[in-house]
Structures are given as C-alpha cells and as structure tokens.
Amino acid sequence: MKILIHGINFSPELTGIGRYSGEMAAWLAQAGHEVRVVTAPPYYPRWRIAEGHANRWSVSRERNGKLTVYRCPVWVPARPSGLKRVLHLASFAAASLPVVLWQIFWKPDVVLAVEPPLFCAPQAWLAARLAGARAWLHIQDFEIDAAFELGLLRAGWLRRMALAVEGFWLRRFDRVSTLSEKMREKLAGKGVAADRTALFPNWVDPAGIYPMAEASALRAQLGLPPERFVALYAGNMGEKQGMEVVLDAAAMLRQACHIHFVLCGDGAARARLQASHAGLSNVSWLPLQPEGKLNALLNLADVHLLPQRADAADLVMPSRLLGMLASGRPVLATASADSQLGGIVAQCGVLAPAGDAVAFAAALQKLASDPAARAKLGAAGRAIAENRFSKESVLGRFERELNEAIHA
Question: Among 2, 35, 309, 370, which residue has the fewest nearby CB atoms (within 10 Å)?
Fold first, then answer.
C-alpha cells in the first residue's frame, strides 16, 4: 500500500500522539508499505522546537527509503492558551496544505489524518478525493469537546459552530477510527454511521516494557532506599491531566515518610504546578526521560498514578496507561467505573473519585500497606497489556483494516 499520514505530532516526540504516529509509520514501512508523513518539527510536550530541528520545510527518508517525512513550519506559543492553541494549529494547517496537495501526484491508496488537529481534516480529505484514495480519520482525542469541557474555550456560539464543522467533516471520511469503545460510541452521537467507524487503540511493546527483577537504577539516583514506597506519575503535565489531586495528596501525606512521589515529564502546566506546590520534601521532579530509560522509569514505581479530570472522561484515553500495565505495577486512577479508563483500571488497580485528594491519599496508603494486593493487580495489568494491547496485534489488525478499506 501507499499510505499518506497527515498530523502535527510525530517522532522523535517521546509522549502522546507523536510517539504513536511515529511507531505506526515505522511499523507500516517495516512491513513493506510505502509511507509518507506530512508533519511539523518536534515541539511537544515542551512547547518549543526540539534541539537539532529547524522550524522550516524539510524532507528526510528513513527505513531504507520506505518512509519519507515532510516537516512543515508551525507557530509554537511559549505559553499556550485556548486562542493561542487555535492559532498554533491553524499555522500548521496553512503551512502543510501545499505539501499535502502535492502528494496527489504520488497517488496514495489511503490518506490518514490524525486528530488532533481537526484543522488537517479538510485538506487530507481533499487530497484523498483528488488522488482517488480512501480518506481515513483517526481520532486520538475529541479536541473540540475537551477544549470546552476543560474551559480552554468558552463561548457558546463558538462551541456550536465548532461542533457543526466537526460533524460535517467526520461524516465525509470513508472511515473514522478512535481509541476506545466509549469514544466510538461518541462518534455515533456525532452522526457517523457505525459501519464507517473502527476501533484502533494505542499499543505497547511488552518486550520493551516489562517487569524488572532488579530494582530500577533511578531509585539509587534519586537517593530512595529500597523500603521507600514510590508513587510515580510519568507523562505529559497539561491541563487535561488534573495533576492537582496528586500534589494535594502529597501535601496531605508529607508526614508519611515511607511514601515518596516522583513526577516525571513536561508540559504546559508543569511550571505552574511546581510553583503552587513548592517545598514538598516527599516529591521529586524529573525531566522527560529518553526512550532508553523508559522501562527503568516505569519500574521505579510501586504504584502508577493516573489522574484525569472528570470533564475529560471518554474524550481522551490516556496513552501512558499501556506502559503502566506492561510494567506489571498497579494503577491508581481518578476515573468513574463506567468510563473506559475506569473499566480497565478496575481490573488492575484502584479507582478514586476525580478531584478528591482525600480519597486519593487514602487509596494510596492502602496500596502501600498491601504488597500482596499490589502484586496481584500488577500481574493482571501485565496480562491485559499482553492480551489486548500488544503492538504487533494492534498494528497487524490495523494493517488488515487499511487493506480492506482500500479494496472495499
């Protein structure tokens, strides 16, 4: 197949959509398909262009020439707000438009747009139609719903207009995929016919992320003795995550000397969170870790922390959950049992109400006192990662569905 992928985030970004888009493209190229990607220079989650990359048009070829990456300039705000995010996405859509349309002469079989941003959907659809290709939209999160639910955008008239535009484009793609069944149900509510939707979850490589027999080297680097219980948050630090509940719980447990919080990552909210919760001796902050240290990082945890704001439930599916499961450690999440996230975590961890720091701290103390329960829950999570979300099975199934869509 000849596959054109269009989206703003791509490897070498280490977290979020860029990580998965990069792994997907590399896997498809390794499988023998010709893959072209139109994207931006890496900038996420730090919200600045990564070192070694220029904010300009460029092209590179990888995977023995099977993977070609076109990078287009993008305006990156240092402090992203609702309006600045809109301008940021619009700048990429404008800069990438001629590059996407130029690909029609390559005659791709399928054009795959990755949302966010929805700004890319119209040009991806147009390129597919001009090239006689199938148009596929993959939704990593419902960015418009999330922006209003989280208060990043507020005007009622703007919401109605944005949702109308979103619905218009969703209904024009040949296939629309998303991460979970709950998100797939939301597509039906937006008017997308069930036979045009597909489930395409994120994945994990169980051979790359696995429970280590020995203690993580990061424990010694942080000066944490073997008996110290580590509660780890590893991932993006933005507004969707609701990390205040973690830090408020840390403040409540500052006298519980056996529990230590490690917060690893970067994002738009990190500086604010550090400033508002400064002086907590039971909290260590780590920068985003390189790929080679990811397994050691995840094995640092005695329990993984996965906060999520209630108003983001089933609008996003936290991708970092899968690495947590594969590491064989239990998960403490703020989610309702009837959400997609809650349904998974209930099998391999503990749920606490979103925003309830008291309940979160109590659940953490209970897990810290019960190593047998932690071992059982961690093993259950590992089994879920292997049986439902392994990289080879998820991408193998996606490859078959792409082929079926092309020949439908």
Answer: 370
pLDDT higher than threshold 70 for residue 265: yes
Q: Cα separations (Å) of 330 from 114, 211, 301, 323?
A: 31, 12, 9, 11
Q: Which residues contact 294 (CB under 8 A, 6 or more apart)?
A: 208, 209, 323
Residue with tokens 């500086």: 271
What DSSP designation does 10 have? Answer: -
Give this prediction's pTM: 0.91
Alpha-helix residue ranges (DSSP H) falling in 66-204: 82-102, 121-131, 143-149, 156-170, 181-189
Element holding 321 (H helix, E strand): helix 320-326
Q: CA angle, 308 as apex, 243 and 18 as ends, to 5°? A: 90
Is the peptide bond between 12 and the residue preceding it cis, with omega within 30 degrees of 0? Answer: yes
| Integer Cα distance of 23 and 18 in angstroms | 9
Residue 235's CB is within 10 A of a number of other CB atoms, namely 27
Domain locations in the chain as residue ranges = 2-203+390-406, 217-388
Task: Tell me the two tokens of residue 68.
Answer: 């070609």
Burial class (CB in 10 A: 0-12, 13-18, 19+), 61: exposed
User: 204-218 burial, b for 16+ CB within 10 Å, e for fewer?
Assistant: bbbeebbbeeeebeb
Structure confidence at residue 358 (pLDDT): 96
Distance between CA atoms of residues 244 and 171, nearest Å: 37
> CATH homologous superfamily of domain 217-388?
Glycogen Phosphorylase B; (3.40.50.2000)
Assign 331 to helix, strand or coil. Answer: strand
pLDDT tier at 240, thresholds 50, 70, 90: low
Q: What is the pLDDT of residue 162?
A: 85
Segment 368-396 shows an average pLDDT of 97
Per-residue pLDDT reduced to its tens digit, 88-133: 999 999 999 999 999 999 999 999 999 988 889 999 999 999 999 9
Residue 201: cis peptide before it, omega within 30 degrees of 0: no
154 band by pLDDT with thresholds 50, 70 and 90: confident
Average the pLDDT over 146-168 and give the result.
83
Look up the CATH number of domain 2-203+390-406.
Answer: 3.40.50.2000
- Pairwise CA distance, residues 290 & 248, whole Å: 28
Nearest Cα residue to 144 out of 190, 80, 202: 190
